[in-house]
Amino acid sequence: MMSVANGQAAVPADRDRAAAPAASSSSLTTSRGTDDTQIIQAVLSGDSRAFEQLVKSYGVRMMGLLCQMLGNEADAQDLAQETFIRAYRKLSRFRQESSFGTWLTRIAINLAKNHLSKRRNQTMALPQMAAHSFVDPDTPPDHVSRKEMTDHLTSALEQLSSNHRTVLVLRLLQGMSYKEISQVLNCPIGTVMSRLSHGKKALLRKLSSMNVDLEEVRS
What we know:
Layout: H1 32-44, H2 51-70, H3 73-89, H4 100-117, H5 130-134, H6 146-158, H7 162-173, H8 178-185, H9 189-209
Helix pairs in contact: 2-3, 2-4, 3-4, 4-8, 6-9, 7-9, 8-9
């Protein structure tokens, strides 16, 4: 079993192991595509150590995503580990119809959604940076404190459906494009836009019920 402690990568010893997150690239659709293809071919040809390069490229990003989805670093570490293990085991099934990063993100999201469904009665912690994505930047600082907003958002997001929470995290926190999200979730761009719109409205309704006055939600 791989370890993600201190972000150090462990080289997989066989097809049932994967390396730990170490570093990430910046986009799902960058020039890494060609490099990833070559690395994948090397792994499938028997060079299991080559998988470590994929872990180093995408590990930190997967940890960040899972922390935002789960709000718990320990759980995120566990699921990051499981994400790479599953990717390693299923690498021969990767058809390269999307980028490796998109495929990997899809695995992580599915694991996170399954995990969240098992702990519905627990609170999902929201990263501090989430407040920046929803609060009008012109709102006076004394109108609502950053901590208050984060607490309200934590409670509101926890009450949203899995679909709405997922698109909000991917779009507003991960900064992914509609196309990238559609590839990750394997649904049309129109569906992504619809879920995002309904998700924002649902979030505002939850916040309004808490007497939170938000003047503007960023698009």
